[in-house]
Amino acid sequence: MAIKNVALKTKSPDAPARSGNDGGMSLYLKRIFALMFGAVAITALAAYITMATPLWTVLITATGFSALYYILLFGGLALAIWAQVRAFSFKPSVGALLLALYAVLTGVVMTPLLIAVLAINPLSILSAFIIAAVMFACMALFGYKTVKDLSFLGIFLFMGMIGLILVGLASFIWPAMLGGTFGTIVCFIGVLVFALFTAYDMQNLKRAYAVVGGDTQKNQLAVLGALHLYISFIAMFQYLLNLFNRN
């Protein structure tokens, strides 16, 4: 939402293109995607280390997830919210460190899902990653290039995300609720919501670049944008992975 608040100060999604600073925009986008894909790599490494060592055993008990798992899960969620709210208060380097920390927590929390998938359909991990990457690239490009104002999507996407979070939380109490047709529908909705979020955030990042101040604010915005896009990519990957392993 912080990106949207900055972006609203512009009059059209094409404002950056008219600024005559294409070189600055190019560097800005490269910084965003370098941070975002760096975070994805950190998540993959954290998940691999957790699975390859006894660390994963402290996340799972005989009856389900351990207390540590929930601490890491909700701690990561709180960190992501806090980092977005305070994005323009941190130095860019601090923001990048928080993004890296969040990526580590995400990788650890994803471990039980990845272990389950490796046991039944390991190739689905590669398939989900490739499809998520292609969808992400297409939607990011659409959000950057389109002349249509996507701001009308904001309220619907926010409501959809809140609904998905509530369903996810409820599933910890009633795991069976995500079985069958309802679970499949939730996965499809999750992929759709975060695919659209990718386009929506890309347009807002493009518009916001035209109105932020000096290099420090641009770097802060790049870190915030990388966090938003990282969340969308990881969410699409997880929902696709769940969708491919419904049985």
Features:
2% strand, 247 residues, globular, mainly alpha, two-stranded antiparallel ribbon, 78% helix, 2 strands
Summarize the structure in words.
The protein has 247 residues and is an all-alpha fold. The protein has one domain (20-244). The protein has 9 helices and 2 strands, in the order H-H-H-E-E-H-H-H-H-H-H. A two-stranded antiparallel sheet has the order 1-2. The radius of gyration is 18 Å and the shape is globular. The model is unreliable at 8-20 (pLDDT under 50).
Tell me the strand percentage band.
Answer: under 5%
Mean pLDDT: 87
Helix and strand content put the structural class at mainly alpha
Low-confidence stretches: 8-20
Task: State the domain count.
Answer: 1
Helix content: over 70%
What's the topology here?
Layout: H1 2-7, H2 15-18, H3 22-52, E1 60-61, E2 64-65, H4 67-85, H5 92-120, H6 123-145, H7 153-173, H8 180-209, H9 215-244
Antiparallel strand pairs: 1-2
